[in-house]
Design a protein that fits this description.
The chain is an alpha/beta fold. It has 2 domains: 147 residues, Nucleotidyltransferase, domain 5, CATH 3.30.420.40; 155 residues, 2-Layer Sandwich (Nucleotidyltransferase, domain 5), CATH 3.30.420.40. Helix content is 45%, strand content 16%. The chain is built from 13 helices and 10 strands. It has a 5-stranded mixed beta sheet with strand order 3-2-1-4-5, with helices on both faces. It has a 5-stranded mixed beta sheet with strand order 8-7-6-9-10, sandwiched between helices. The relative contact order is 0.19. It binds 5'-O-[(R)-(carboxyoxy)(hydroxy)phosphoryl]adenosine and zinc ion (ZN). The site of 5'-O-[(R)-(carboxyoxy)(hydroxy)phosphoryl]adenosine has 19 residues, from helix 5 and helix 6.
Length: 371
């Protein structure tokens, strides 16, 4: 079983052999945090407490299993919000102790890597290693090299070795999506609606701004998104014609009319062009650096995971560049891209097999690194 509570999703899943999903239950807290425009840590912890028991129960029911039949309990112990993590950890420890089963601490980021492998297994494909893996979500934007051999001195299939290649120096890409959406009166979370708006044909061939992303000094592949977010902010400030439509969208969302079909008529061509320019800039930054890393490191494939990996334009761009570079590209399905517990169970499995078990000292580690 995998348990995940690092941010605003309470999730539990049962996975067989580390690769076959028997159940995956995700209770999202989006409706609770929406009115604050972001995750409120205290509310997140409280909601995890409320949801963890029913979510685990439902995961067992869907898998058609009893708790006693589990082999081990894997739980996210970082990175994430400390209070949120503690709920899952305490529950996981209690369950493991009561059942007399091994407990495995899982790094949330390693979970996102395993989401790609879960999906590939489902499609009957095996992922070529070494790989460059981009994890891109609301909390993270980081590039790793993923290698198969000799992690933690063990030779266990699925127990990967990681090297960090680059990371964001300020905001995560998903955070930039969320902040830009908020600024444009498009609600929370921002990714899904911006993704759809950016794909809309722009009436009258209206041209948007061109945002350029600052290059890092030297040959660093680090990311930066706060400059882009500020550029969008200044662009909006310089164009006062945006103000009434932003207010109209905020009003619509406050009334509960936040469906794409309800928001689209409230977006001028200039807004659609702005959204598209923002997204193009994010996608070209992400894809450009991921493929530069793939070339530098001479890897055999490119993996993308995390909430922003659900983005349709990002997927298309990675597919295109992958085809051009002759590199296979792997994504999880949309459901496995965002936070879930199947990926936590998948990442726990090789640790369980290799005897890398946790004891009851396992604690939340909000800043836990993968490499
Ligand atoms: O992985 P995730 O569920 O949680 C974190 O670990 O952060 O990612 C959530 C993030 C949010 O910032 C959300 O706006 C973004 O993923 N996101 C998207 C899309 N769907 C979700 N960003 C761009 N395009 C999308 N389709
Ligand atoms: Zn995540």
């Amino acid at each position: 079983m995998g348990i995940e509570s690092s941010c605003d999703e309470t999730a539990a899943a049962v996975v067989a052999g580390g690769r076959e999903i028997l159940s995956s239950v995700v209770a999202s807290q989006i409706d609770i945090h929406r009115k604050y425009g972001g995750v409120v840590p205290e509310l997140a912890s409280r909601e995890h407490l409320r949801r963890i028991v029913p979510v685990v129960r439902e995961a067992m029911e869907q898998a058609g299993m009893k708790l006693e039949e589990l082999d081990a309990i894997g739980v996210t112990h970082g990175p994430g919000l400390v209070g949120a993590l503690l709920v899952g950890i305490t529950y996981g420890k209690t369950l493991a102790m009561a059942l007399g089963k091994p407990l495995v601490g899982v790094n949330h980021l390693e979970g996102h890597v395993h989401a790609v492998f879960l999906e590939a297994a489902r499609a009957g494909r095996s992922v070529e290693l070494p790989a460059v893996c981009l994890i891109v979500s609301g909390g993270h934007t980081v590039l790793y090299e993923v290698n198969s051999e000799g992690a933690e001195g063990k030779e266990e299939p699925g127990l990967f070795r990681y090297a960090r290649i680059a990371q964001t120096r300020d905001d995560a890409a998903g955070e930039a999506y969320d902040k830009v959406a908020k600024l444009l009166g498009l609600g929370y979370p921002g990714g899904p609606i911006l993704d759809r708006l950016a794909a809309v044909e722009i009436p009258g061939n209206v041209k948007g701004p061109r945002f350029t992303v600052a290059k890092m000094k030297g040959n660093s592949l680090d990311f930066s998104f706060s400059g882009l977010k500020t550029a969008v902010l200044y662009y909006v400030r310089e164009h006062s014609e945006f103000i009434p439509e932003i207010a109209a969208r905020e009003e619509s969302i406050a009334q509960g009319h936040r469906k794409f079909e309800e928001i689209l008529p409230l977006c001028s061509p200039a807004t659609l062009a702005l959204v598209r320019a923002f997204q193009e800039s994010v996608v070209s930054e992400l894809a450009g650096r991921a493929f530069a890393a793939a070339e530098q490191r001479q890897v055999a494939s490119v993996l993308v995971s995390g909430g922003v990996a659900a983005n349709s334009r990002l997927r298309a761009e990675f597919e295109k560049r992958g085809a051009a570079a002759g590199l296979p590209v792997y994504f999880p399905s949309r459901a496995l891209s965002t936070d879930n517990a199947a990926m936590i169970a998948a990442a726990a499995y090789p640790r369980f097999r290799a005897g890398l078990h946790a004891d009851l000292q396992l604690n939340a580690d909000p800043g836990l690194k993968l490499a």
